[in-house]
Specification:
This protein is mostly helical. It contains 18 helices and nine strands.
Length: about 500
C-alpha cells in the first residue's frame, strides 16, 4: 500500500480523499481484512435468513415506494433488483463527466462499506474494480428529486455492475458487457437487497458536493488575490484591511481574508500611509466581508458534506449484529441540498464582487487615471484598440447567469410517486446548480485576473509589489502577454480556466 492509496474499510474518509480519487491522483483499495469482509457479508446472510423464514422486508419481499404493500412471492424475489434498475433507466440530460462519475462511485462505496446495507462483500469488490479500472457508468444528470435518494442516476450504476448499459472506458463509449469481457470481469446477479442498496442513497449529490467544496475553497483564495491586485491597480486605500479594524468584527473567515490582503499589500503598523481616498467603493472596501462569508461557511459545509459522505444512506438499514431491519428515511438529502444552496449563493457573490471590481477598472470615471478599458495601446493606436471592453461585457453576462441560478432548489419540493415521496430534498438539483455557478464564477475570475494584472502593469512597476503579487503577475504572464493591441482572448481564457481547475497558482499558506 502506498501513500496514494485510499482504503475503504468502513472508516471515515474526507472530502479530499474523494477528490483525489475523482482526479485519479490516488488508488482505490478495498480492505481485505477478514473482520471487515465478515462484517459486510453478515448483512447479506441476515437478509438470506429472513427470506428463508419468509420475513417481511421492504424492497426484498415487497415492491418499492408506494408499492410497498405489494407482496412479492419468494420464487420471484430474485428478479426484483433487475426490475428496479430497469424501470429507473429513464434519465435525461448530459451525462456526469468522468471526474464527477468517479466521485459518485467513491461516495457510494464509502456508504456501502459502513456495513448497514445488507450487500455482499463481492458487490463492494465489483464497485471498487470499476473505480480502479476507471470503468465509468454513463449516468444522466437529470431525473433525481434527492429522496428516495438518487434513484434514477444510480440505477445506471446498478445496471453496469450487472453487466448492462454503457460505460466510458479509455475515452470510448462502449457496452458494459464488452468491457467486462475484455477485462475478465464477471457481471453480478444482484441479490434481493442489493439493487435497492446501490440506488437508494445520496451518492450523486454528495459526490458532486465534494467536488464543489474543493472548487469553492480554491476560488475563495483566488478571488482574494484578484482583489489585492485590483486594489493596487485602482490605487486603493490599503488600510481598509487594517488588523485593528477587523478585530472589532471578528468573523474568523472574514478576518483571514483581510489578513491575506493585508499581506499582499504589505500593510503594517509602521508602514507609511499613502491614502489617496478616505473610502474606496464597496467592491474593494468590503472584499473581506464578501469573500469572508464563503470562508466562514466552509467549516460547516465540510461538516454537512463529510457526515453525509460517511453515512449509511439507504433504506432499510440492516443491523446484522442486532438482527434488526430499520425502516427510515436516510436517503433524504436535505443536508446536502441546504449546503449546496448555501454554497452556490456564497460563490455567486464572488462573481458579483469581481464583476464590480472589473467595472471600476474599465471606466475612466472610476479607475483613477488608467486607460479606458485597460487598453495598452500606444497613443497613435488608442482610437483603434478596445482592450478589455468586450471581456467586461462577457463578465457581466456570466455574473448575471450565476446570480439567476441562486434560487434555492431545496424549497421546490414536489410530491411524487403517488404521494409516497411527498417531501423531497432536491439535493441533486442544488448540487448541479452549484457546479454551474462555480463554472460561471471561475470564468469571471479568469477574466478578472487578466484584467487586474493588466491594470497593475499599467499603474506601477511590478517589482515594487509584494513577493506574493510579483509571483502571481509573473505566472499570469507566462501564459498571457500584456494586451498592447486588440486580440481575441478566448483561448487564453480557456487556458486560465484549466489552470484554475488544476489549482495552478499557489495562493496563501
Amino acid at each position: 500500500m502506498t501513500t496514494n492509496d485510499i482504503v475503504f474499510d468502513g472508516g471515515w474518509l474526507s472530502i479530499e480523499a474523494i477528490c483525489l480519487l475523482a482526479d485519479r491522483q490516488a488508488v482505490c483499495r478495498l480492505s481485505e481484512q477478514a473482520e471487515f469482509v465478515t462484517r459486510i457479508d453478515k448483512g447479506a446472510l441476515f437478509i438470506d435468513a429472513l427470506l428463508k423464514e419468509e420475513g417481511f422486508v421492504y424492497g426484498v419481499t415487497t415492491g418499492y415506494g408506494d408499492s410497498c404493500t405489494v407482496s412479492i412471492p419468494l420464487n420471484l424475489v430474485e428478479e426484483l433488483p433487475k426490475h428496479l434498475y430497469t424501470f429507473h433507466g429513464c434519465g435525461l440530460g448530459q451525462h456526469f463527466d468522468p471526474q464527477q462519475t468517479r466521485a459518485i462511485l467513491a461516495v457510494r462505496l464509502v456508504s456501502l462499506a459502513r456495513g448497514f446495507s445488507g450487500v455482499r462483500y463481492k458487490l463492494l469488490q465489483q464497485l471498487a474494480e470499476l473505480i480502479k479500472q476507471d470503468i465509468l457508468p454513463l449516468m444522466p444528470q437529470e431525473g433525481s428529486v434527492g429522496a428516495s435518494g438518487d434513484l434514477t442516476p444510480l440505477s445506471y450504476l446498478a445496471a453496469v455492475l450487472a453487466g448492462e448499459r454503457e460505460v466510458l472506458y479509455q475515452q470510448q463509449r462502449l457496452p458494459t458487457q464488452a468491457v467486462f469481457a475484455q477485462l475478465n470481469i464477471e457481471a453480478l446477479t444482484l441479490k434481493p437487497k442489493e439493487g435497492l442498496a446501490i440506488m437508494n442513497g445520496t451518492a450523486v449529490m454528495t459526490g458532486i458536493a465534494c467536488l464543489a467544496f474543493q472548487r469553492a475553497e480554491y476560488l475563495s483564495r483566488l478571488t482574494t488575490r484578484i482583489s489585492s491586485l485590483t486594489s493596487v491597480a485602482l490605487q486603493g486605500n490599503a488600510y481598509h484591511f487594517d488588523e485593528k479594524l477587523f478585530s472589532v468584527k471578528p468573523h474568523p473567515g472574514q478576518t483571514l481574508v483581510a489578513k491575506r490582503i493585508r499581506a499582499d499589500l504589505q500593510v503594517t503598523e509602521s508602514a507609511p500611509r499613502h491614502d489617496t481616498r478616505l473610502q474606496d467603493r464597496y467592491s474593494l472596501r468590503c472584499a473581506p466581508h464578501v469573500i469572508g462569508v464563503l470562508e466562514d461557511s466552509l467549516p460547516w459545509l465540510r461538516q454537512f458534506i463529510e457526515t453525509e459522505l460517511n453515512s449509511a444512506s439507504d433504506n432499510p438499514i440492516i443491523d446484522a449484529e442486532g438482527e434488526h431491519v430499520l425502516h427510515g428515511g436516510h436517503f433524504y438529502g436535505g443536508h446536502i441540498a441546504f449546503a449546496m444552496d448555501g454554497l452556490k449563493t456564497a460563490v455567486a457573490n464572488l462573481a458579483d464582487l469581481l464583476d464590480r471590481q472589473m467595472a471600476q477598472l474599465m471606466d475612466t470615471k472610476f479607475n483613477h487615471g488608467l486607460p479606458a478599458n485597460l487598453s495598452g495601446a500606444a497613443a497613435d493606436q488608442a482610437m483603434l484598440n478596445h482592450g478589455f471592453k468586450a471581456v467586461q461585457i462577457a463578465v457581466s453576462a456570466w455574473t448575471a447567469e450565476a446570480l439567476k441560478l441562486t434560487m434555492p432548489a431545496s424549497v421546490f419540493s414536489r410530491s411524487t410517486e403517488c404521494h409516497n415521496q411527498d417531501k423531497v430534498s432536491m439535493g441533486t438539483i442544488a448540487a448541479r446548480d452549484c457546479i454551474r455557478i462555480l463554472e460561471l464564477t471561475e470564468q469571471v475570475a479568469a477574466a478578472a485576473l487578466l484584467a487586474a494584472v493588466q491594470g497593475v502593469e499599467l499603474r506601477i512597476n511590478v517589482d515594487s509589489l509584494s513577493p506574493a503579487l510579483i509571483k502571481t503577475v509573473k505566472q499570469v504572464r507566462e501564459h498571457s502577454p500584456f494586451l498592447a493591441t486588440d486580440r481575441a482572448l478566448e483561448q487564453e481564457l480557456r487556458l486560465f480556466l484549466e489552470l484554475i481547475h488544476k489549482r495552478h497558482w499557489d495562493l496563501y499558506e
